[in-house]
Structure formats: structure tokens, C-alpha cells
Amino acid sequence: MKTGAIVEEGFVYEQQTHLTVSKTSLFFVGDGFTAYDSKASLVFRVDSYGPYGGDTGELVLMDAVGRCILTVRRKRPSLHQRWEGFAGERTAQKPLFSVRRSSMIGRSRLTVEVYRNGGEEYQIEGSFGCRKCTIYNAEREAVAEIRRKVDACANVVLGKYVFLLTLKPGFDGAFAMGLVLVLDQIHGADDHGGDDDNGDRVAVGPTTELF
Question: Within the chain, which residues score under 50 in pLDDT?
Fold first, then answer.
């Protein structure tokens, strides 16, 4: 498996890592996020700037101390709703990566192009609205997964505003979190109407698999 930093080396983990991601507000698509590791330490945050923050076409991913590490911006005009990711706060430079829908009809797959070392390509498949999707590299190896989070003590699946981002060893967590922001912008409307679970907790049996 090809690994290494795409956004920042400090967020490339040697071991498989689980981040608990949650929305900091539930009222508007594209609102803020926080991401914590298994030790309950803050790793990433995205601040919300109110109901019109998602309409600016730009989101900033910060680390635990508020340092900007990635800016994702919607490219306009764009036939396939393309988003681009830039290092830090600067968007005048060349993008690190871009994300686009693979087709106008299908909504289940996104293509990610990384502009480094001759280029890399990833595919995102599944349903972000249901919090069940996987990021694959060019060799069709799963490098990250998004899944509903299970509260082991209460034996329930938590609402979809809290979910797990699982990173395979060597995959850049900041890059993965940037993809989460893009997914939320593209499919975030699914969170605000029409889903079968409506974000509620769901009871699970003792043998339910997490992944």
C-alpha cells in the first residue's frame, strides 16, 4: 500500500486510528465539526460561521490549537461539482487535490485526484448520508472508512451526527478529514430530510459488527 503525507506528515499514523467526528451544530448543512482520537484528545476542528457559512464555497480545517492546515474550496463553475484542497489558508497556490463526481447520474462514487509525485487517484464509494462509505486507493485497497459509531455501554448505534473515521496505517488523517468536509458539502442535504433513521439512535444486538 502506497502511503505518506498528502496534507501534513504529523497526521500520518503508523497504526490504524479511529477518530470520532461530530457536528458542532445540527441546524445547517456544512456547519462545524470536531474530531477526537481514542484518548479523547481534540485532533481537528472546523468552526461554524452560521447559516450562510456553507454558501461561501470554502471551508477551513484546523488542528487542535486553531492552526489552519487545509482549505477546501468549491471550484466555480464546475459541471461535476468539483472541490479543491489547498495547504494552509492560501488558495492562490496550486491545489493539493481535487474531488469530483464520477458521473452526473450516479451519486455513489466520487473521484479524488492528488497532484503530487506524478499524481494519485482515489475513489470514494458508498453513502455518506448513511455514514457508510469507503475510500479506496488506485490498487482498490481500503485506506479509510466512515461508519456509524456504536456506544458499547448502551449497546446502540449513535445518531449520524456522530460517526467514526477509521484511518488505515500510513494514510494522511488531515487529507481524510478534508474529504469528509467535501462529502458533507456534496451530500449534506441528506442529513436534513428523508433518511430512514432520521439521525436517531438504533439498538443493536451483542454480535453486531462495527466494521
Answer: 30, 50-53, 106, 189-211
Chain centroid to CA 49: 19
**Cβ contact 200:159 at 8 Å:** yes
DSSP string, 120-136: EEEEEEEETTTTEEEEE
The CATH number that domain 9-203 falls under is 2.40.160.200
Nearest to 68 by CA among 170, 174, 163: 174
* Of the candidates 118, 142, 173, the residue with the CA atom closest to the CA atom of residue 7: 173
Q: What residues have CB less than 8 Å from 93, skipping those under 6 apart?
A: 86, 87
Q: How many CB atoms lie within 10 A of CB 158?
A: 20
- Residue 144 · residue 168 · CB < 8 Å: yes
Please classify residue 122 by burial: count the beta carbons closer than 10 Å to its beta carbon, then call 0-12 exposed, 13-18 middle and 19+ buried: buried
**Are the C-beta atoms of residues 173 and 12 closer than 8 Å to each other?**
yes
Which tens digit of pLDDT belongs to each residue from 27-76? 555 468 999 999 999 999 998 654 444 556 789 999 999 999 999 998 87
| Kind of pairing between the strands at 109-114 and 120-127 | antiparallel
C-alpha distance from residue 194 to each of 14, 26, 79, 169, 188 (Å): 39, 15, 26, 36, 12
Residue 164: which of 178, 174, 151 has the closest Cα? 151
